[in-house]
Design goal:
Blueprint (H helix, E strand, L loop, with lengths): L26 E3 L8 E11 L6 E11 L3 E3 L1 H9 L8 H16 L3 E11 L2 E10 L3
Antiparallel strand pairs: 1-4, 2-3, 3-5, 5-6
Length: 134
């Protein structure tokens, strides 16, 4: 179903997060298999609203329990930089990051939280979670 607003925006804009080309997130072998968690915060995340073209700013937090692999931070940094000029909704950001983290390191569990700065007096916090099946 294609819906439209007076600004020419369509529902197809919301269906594009997996069409955006982003660099792969790399991983390295986990040396410890005990139940510990890793929390990564990126407080300077930026992207572009596909509807208005205005920049979105926020903090992306990744919390995961590693299995055999851990995320490599330099590749994650370059991954996040590619969002700077991407037109993508905040809700899709959290879910796309989660999908890409799970693909990269296959964690036991993972939660991605996007805490975005207020726009028009409204603050958005989006949380997406994954838990591996045993």
């Amino acid at each position: 179903m294609k819906t439209s607003t007076s600004m020419g925006y369509t529902s197809e804009h919301a269906a594009t997060p997996h069409k955006i080309k982003l660099p792969a997130i790399e991983a390295w072998p986990n040396q410890y298999r005990r139940g510990y968690s890793i929390k990564i915060e990126h407080p300077e995340f930026t992207s572009v609203c596909p509807k208005t073209g205005l920049p979105d700013f926020g903090t992306i937090t990744i919390e995961y329990v590693p299995d055999k692999l851990c995320l490599e931070l330099k590749s994650l940094k370059y991954y996040f930089l590619q969002y700077r000029n991407c037109g993508i909704f905040m809700e899709n950001i959290a879910n796309r990051v989660l999908d890409d983290v799970v693909k990269a390191c296959k964690p036991k569990s993972c939660t991605v939280t996007g805490t975005f700065t207020p726009r028009g007096g409204l603050n958005s916090v989006i949380t997406a979670s994954y838990k591996a099946h045993k």
